[in-house]
Every structure is written in C-alpha cells, then in structure tokens.
Specification:
Layout lengths: L4 E5 L4 H10 L5 E5 L4 E5 L12 E4 L5 E6 L3 E5 L5 H10 L6 E5 L5 E4 L5 E11 L8
Antiparallel strand pairs: 1-3, 2-3, 2-4, 5-9, 6-8, 7-8, 7-9
C-alpha cells in the first residue's frame, strides 16, 4: 500500500519534522532524510523497515477511522462495546500493547504488540498507543 504522502518539506532536524507531522491533522507518520534535508509526511503508518539514511516515527492519534492493521495480534476479545473500550484495553496493557484494531461489524478487538502497516478498511478503526522513540 502506498504511503499516501501528504507533503515533502526542506527540514533537516528530527524534532522539526516530527512537530510538522503532529501539527498536520491527516499525518500519522513521518520520515526524515537529513542528508537530503527532506521531511516526508505520510497519512499511513508503513511497515517497519531498517534504514541507515533516514529516521522515522509515528504520531499517536486517538482514532484512525477506516484503518486496519494486519499481524502482530497478541490477544483478541469478542463483542467489545466500541473502539474506546478497545483502546482502553490496549492502554491498560501498556507493557506489551503498541496498537489496536476494532472491527466495527463483529465488535472484535485485536491488541497488537507492534505497529503493523495500515490498510484501508471500512469496517475497522485502529490506533497507536505509544509511538516508538525514533526508529532508524
């Protein structure tokens, strides 16, 4: 799935790139290539990749509507009332849970030990609980 890039900016400092993403409502992840003075803002959170020429991060957003994340599930719960309850379950298990996915049709809640790449899905709402510190 494409990153759904929101923009490219001539920034060379990590904190400025991250701040720019936080201030852009549709931004969920950012990548900085300091050698090229290039900050990219993305609507999606791509799968984690190891790179030596850039630094990336994700922004915690309360709810990512119409978004699913495949893989990384360590526990699933059936018939959860709503996405808020699913999010709170992930927050309560903060030592392991990094993201969550709520199926709005089946009302199943899936807690994730990682932040899998996002994909469009009308029947899912997801969220990232603790953005990782800068991942190289």
């Amino acid at each position: 799935m494409p990153f759904l890039r929101l923009g490219r900016f001539p920034i060379s400092a990590t904190d400025l790139c991250q701040s720019h993403c936080i201030q852009t409502a549709a931004c969920n992840s950012w990548t900085l290539a300091p050698d090229r003075r290039l900050c990219r803002l993305n609507a999606r959170i791509p799968s984690k990749k190891t790179r030596t020429d850039s630094t990336s991060g994700v922004v915690e957003r309360e709810f990512q509507l119409n978004t699913a994340r495949g893989g990384g599930t360590f526990i699933s719960t059936r018939k959860v009332r709503d996405a808020r309850v699913c999010r709170r379950a992930c927050e309560a298990d903060h030592s392991v849970c990094r993201s969550w996915v709520f199926n709005t049709e089946s009302r199943n809640c899936h807690l994730k030990s990682d932040v899998p790449g996002a994909s469009n899905s009308r029947r899912h709402t997801s969220g990232v609980i603790r953005p990782p510190s800068h991942v190289k």
